[in-house]
Amino acid sequence: MGSTNSLSLFSAIVLTSALAGCGGSSGSSGTSDEGNPTTETPTPVVQMESVSGQIRDYFTGEPVAGALVTLQATNLEEPVEAVSGPEGRFTLDAEEGADRATISSRATGYTTNSMLTSTTEGSDNDNLELSLVPAQLATSFSAETTATLSLENSLPVAEVPANAFRSSNGALYNGSVNTQISALDPSSDPTIIPGNYDFVDTDGQVGLSTSYGAVTFDFTDENGERLQLSDGTPATIRIPLASGLNPFEVPSSVPLAWFDEESGQWVEESMATLVDNRYYEGQVTHFTTWNAADTYTPVEVSGRVVDRDGNPVAGASVRAQGYDYIGMNTTVTNADGTFSVPVREDSQVLISARLDATSNTREITVGAEDYTLDQDIVLWPSAVSITLTWGQNPSDLDSHLLGPNSEAGTSEFHVAFWDKVVTVGDTVIELDVDDVTSFGPEVVTIPDFPYAGRYRYLVHLFAGTGTIENSPARVEFSINGETRIFSPQNAQGSVSDWWAVADIIVDETGDVRLEAVQEWSEQGEEMVFGFSLNNRSNPAVEAAKRKYYSENVR
């Protein structure tokens, strides 16, 4: 929330008091050189907005200390900077008033990422979360030599000519170039790339985009200062095609856009060409995050967000995420709880809302016309949302939630793909989204906890090659207004087809806390606090058929 600049306010008070003692009132009065009375206008008080949050590792959720955090906005003459502390926490104080501000962060071992916020009065900037992706390539080379920079999969993502870099003062740089590069695959999570998907084309027209893949390039000198290409010195870059896309259905060429950390928009600069159905190749004149992207024709999705009693909720964040395309957009509800958010026409979309509470995730299919939700989106104050994403293989990971089905705790419920909607007491617990074709997301929402006890969330490898550990899987809990991230890399024991992720503990007063389990469970042998997995390890053939043949029509 916004706060007053104490020093400026104090100075204004002292000045006013002094002037009052000299016979002044609302301003100071005196006599000019010509003998005419003059009035001095008081110095305006600058309102400040405090922005705080945490920098975390995208895959593990661990805090990142020592990260440089920068806030930029059009109403600021200079960026505001801070460094994250031991727990990854940061605080920035910036002049209030920007409808759109960009928070960016970079750290040793990680590539830069950015998120959008606002510094207008009343903005919710008390507990922001920005995740950084570990660098896939961290190396150094001499600026005086030609550099071919390749990731682990041997794809050269950049070819930089010799003597191509300049320092921040514009001088030719000939020292060692420290390099951090990550190829970003937004197939399972579109938020892995910076900002939203706002796109500015070469004519200055603003639209929305879908991504085919992105790469972040960070080049710094020996002192950690950013380096850029010299004017007139292009470099060749290659962006791996997002693994969730069919290489035979994507365009042969797409715009190549860079992320502008000041405006928070993707800016088209040139074109990239699809090569060998594997990657997009193009030339760039500076380094940042580059995105192989294209715009689309939008339609509007309209609806209303309410609380559990049916009252409209103002200021809630509504998110629309593509389910059969890579893209997302957000908006904020009006005073009457209504909203309208653009999405790609003729597409499947996931809609959800948050504001100190969370909603179910709703899957809708839109056509070529605007779409109005037939039911309000309900925010549940004590809700927990669990989101599972993974890679291309295994092709199908499944969410499982078990918990007490009675006050005595002598029976259990089990939410999974064969029983997506379960009523426990008066509470409806749902597997909102069930994905069967790699990547996810799968979303489980618990609007309320009917009984005290222990609720366990597990992930099961249902189909495909590889392991959960190497998928890479990622589970995000949204609980008590914060998120916790779990990775199978931290699970204990021998890798198996069952990953016990975490328990939600509900006490007799209804207080909820999250307790990590992080264990591999042997199939057919595990007992989870009285919840047997024996009869769940091999679901009935008819259930499997329903999953793959009845619902896998997209």
From TrEMBL:
GO molecular function, one term: carboxypeptidase activity
Transmembrane segments: none
Polar residues compositional bias, start-end: 33-44
Signal peptide segment: 1-20
Region span, Disordered: 23-44
Pfam family, one: CarboxypepD_reg
InterPro entries in alphabetical order: CarboxyPept-like_regulatory (IPR008969)
Name this protein carries in UniProt: Carboxypeptidase regulatory-like domain-containing protein
